[in-house]
Amino acid sequence: MTAPAIESPPDLSHLVNLGVRTATSSVIRDLLRLVDRPGMLSLAGGLPAPELLPVDRVGAAVAGQLAAHGPRALQYAPTEGVPELRALVAADHGDHVDHPARVDDVIVTTGSQQALDLLARALLGPGATVVVEAPGYLGAIQAFRLSGATMVAVAGDADGLRTDVLADRLAAGMRPALVYVVPNFGNPSGATLSLARRHHLADLADRYRFVVVEDDPYGALRFRGDALPRLATMTPHAVTLGTASKVVAPGLRVGWVVAPAWLTPALVRLKQVADLHTSTLDQLVVADLLSDAPFMAGQLDRLRASYRPRADALVDAVRAMPGAPLAVAGPAGGMFCWATLRAPRATHDLLPAALDAGVAFVPGSAFHLDDSGDASMRLCFTTLSVDQIGDAVERLATVL
Amino acid sequence: MTAPAIESPPDLSHLVNLGVRTATSSVIRDLLRLVDRPGMLSLAGGLPAPELLPVDRVGAAVAGQLAAHGPRALQYAPTEGVPELRALVAADHGDHVDHPARVDDVIVTTGSQQALDLLARALLGPGATVVVEAPGYLGAIQAFRLSGATMVAVAGDADGLRTDVLADRLAAGMRPALVYVVPNFGNPSGATLSLARRHHLADLADRYRFVVVEDDPYGALRFRGDALPRLATMTPHAVTLGTASKVVAPGLRVGWVVAPAWLTPALVRLKQVADLHTSTLDQLVVADLLSDAPFMAGQLDRLRASYRPRADALVDAVRAMPGAPLAVAGPAGGMFCWATLRAPRATHDLLPAALDAGVAFVPGSAFHLDDSGDASMRLCFTTLSVDQIGDAVERLATVL
User: Fold this and answer.
1) pLDDT tens digits along B52-111
2) Cβ distance of B10 and A262 shorter than 8 Å
3) Cα–Cα distance for residue pair B231/A116, rounded to 1 Å
4) Chain A residues touching B256 at Cβ < 8 A
5) C-alpha angle with apex B293: B288 to B297, nearest 5 degrees?
6) Among the partner residues B74, B128, B142, nearest to A249 by beta-carbon distance
C-alpha cells in the first residue's frame, strides 16, 4: 500500500466557516500556553483546587457502582441521564424552589457547557437576540455566538446584571429569546445578583416572555452571607443549570439542566444528536457522591474553608498594593474576583510584563463582546496557597 | 417564598425550531419503549453483549489511573483529549495507513456521535450537500439533517455504497461537501465497502474535492475474511472516526476523529463550545485498556468468538424460515444484518404483531431519508444467545 500524499495541501478549507474564533478566545488560549512555565504563579486559571478533588472517594464510588450495577455501568444509557442522578437533581432543585421538581424536567449534560450549547441550538439562531452580562462567562458567549444570534451586552456591577439597563433596552423594543446570568459569584465578575434584581429580572421575563438561564456552578461555594433564592422560584421561564464540576470534579464532565416541560423534549433530541448521552459511569459516580450527604457536607466545608482565606488574602493583598492601583470587590463565594485599574490603562498591555514577572491573570477584554473592559482583570484564587497569593500580588505590583 | 405558578402555560415554544424529529427517529424511540417488556426477544437493539463488557478490567483501570495521576484524573483536561489516548489512536491509525499519523491530527470526542455532530457543524449548513448511504446510520443522518444541509441518499448494496451511482450524480453536477460511509459491517446494512469501491470513492473525493468520512466503529469486530484498507490510505480528504464503544464499553462515551490538519482546528474550537472536553477519567481508562495489548487481543477474541456464532445462527435461522420470506446476507463482522421481505410488504406494518409475538426488530424505513426501504428490517445479533436467536426467528416466522 502506498502512503498517500497527505502532505499535498487540500484546498477544502473554504468549507469551514466558523464564527467561533474571536480576539477574546485567542487571548485565553494563547495565554494558557504560557502559564505552564516553571515558577509561574497563575491567577489566570479557573480550576478547582486540585488537593480537594476527592480522588479516593471517586475511586470508592467507581468500585461500588461497578459492583452494584455490573455491565449496566458501562452500557449505553438514556439520553436524558441515569434515573438515579436525575432524581437527586430534581430533589435538590425542589429544595431550592420550595416545591417538588419533576424528574422529567431534569436532563443530565456533559458538563454545563453542553447545556449552554444545547440551549443555544434550541432557542437561538440568526435573527434571535441573546443578552449576556458584561463582563460575562466566555463559554456561554462562545456557544451563543456560534448560533448566529445577535449578542447584546448589558452591563453588570457589584450586584450583578444591571436589570434597569435591561429594562430600558426592552422598553426600547429589544426582544431577546434568552437572557443569561450567573447569579452567584459570577465568572469573571465574582458578583452576585441582588434579590431585588432577581425579582426585577423575573418580572421582565414574564412581561417580555424570554427565557432566563440561571447558570449556577458556584452557588454551593458561598463562604459568606446568606443564599439568595433561585430565579426558578420567581418565574416559570427560568432554566437552571448545575454541575458537579466545582463541587465534585470537573474532569467527570457531569452537569444538568432543569427546564420547563415545553423545552425539555427539544433539549433531549439535540443531546441525542450531540453525544447520545453522558458517560454512564461518570453519572453513577456523581450520583453516588451527591447521595452521600455526610461526604458532600464535608466536601463543601473543605472547599469553603479553603477558598475563603484565599479570597480574603487576594483581596487584602490587592488593596494593600503600593499606590492602590487596583479597585477590587471581595466576593462572597465562588472562585474569582474582578479587579479594575484606577488609571486608564489596558490590562492586556500589561500581561506580557506580568508573565515575565512570573504572574498570570486574564485580561478583562476577554470577557466582553466588544473587547471593552480592558482596564479590568480576572483573578482566580482557588489554586494558589495563601502564601503564593501574597507572592503573586507582589509580582503584580512590580508591573503596575 | 411563594411557589411560582409553573403550572401556568408558558407560550414560548415558538422559540424552539428544530428539524430533528423525523418520522424515522420517532419510530426508533417509540419502539425502544416496547422492547423492555418482559419476555421480549429483541433483535432491535444496537448494544454490545453486556456479558463481554470488561467490568473488572475497567475497575482496575480506574484504580490504577487514580493512583498514578491523582487529581489530574479528575481535573479539567485539554479540549483535544488527554495525550496518552491521542498518542495511542495516532499509533493505531499509523498502523492502518502504513505511515506515521500525527498526534495533532487526533481529537478525542464524546463518542463518535459527537464527532459526527462536530463534522456537521464544521462542514455543513444550509446550502451544503451531504451524501449518505441508503440505508444509513441514523445518528449520522440526524446530525447532518440538523445542520440544515441538503441530504442526498445514494443506494448501497452488499458491497456498500454504490459508487457508480455517486459518480453519476457527481457527473450530473452534484457537489457534496461530505460523503459519509460506514465502510466495515455497516449499521444497519451489515455490508462492507469493497476494495474496488473504496478506491473509486477515494478517486471521486480527490477529483470532486469532498471530504469522505469513514466511520469505523465495527472494523475490529471482523470475524471472517481479511480487513480492507482504510480510505485514509487512498485520499488526503478522508476523515476517520473510531470509538471505544464497541470494543471496550459504550457507556464511557469515548470516541475519536483523525482529520486532516486544515480541519482539526475548527473541530477543536467546536468541541470547546460543545463540552470543553471529554471525561478525563474515561479517557485515561480507555487509554489504559487500549495500551494493554494482551487484554485487548483477548477482548477482541472474545467479542469475535461470541458474535460469529450468533450471526451465523441468525442468518441460518432466517434462511430456514418456512417459505423463506426474507432474503438476508451473512455479515463478515459487526453487530447487524439486514433482511428484506421477498413479498412487497412493509416491515413497519408487521412490527406491532411481532411485538405481540415477543420479538422486536427495527423497520428498514427508519434508516432512509424518505421512509423508503420499508420491505427491510435491521436485525442485531449481539445481545441474544444462539438459542434465543433461534426462538426469536421462530416468533418472527409466525408473523411473516
Assistant:
1) 999 999 999 999 999 999 999 999 999 999 999 999 999 999 999 988 889 999 999 999
2) yes
3) 35
4) none
5) 120
6) B74
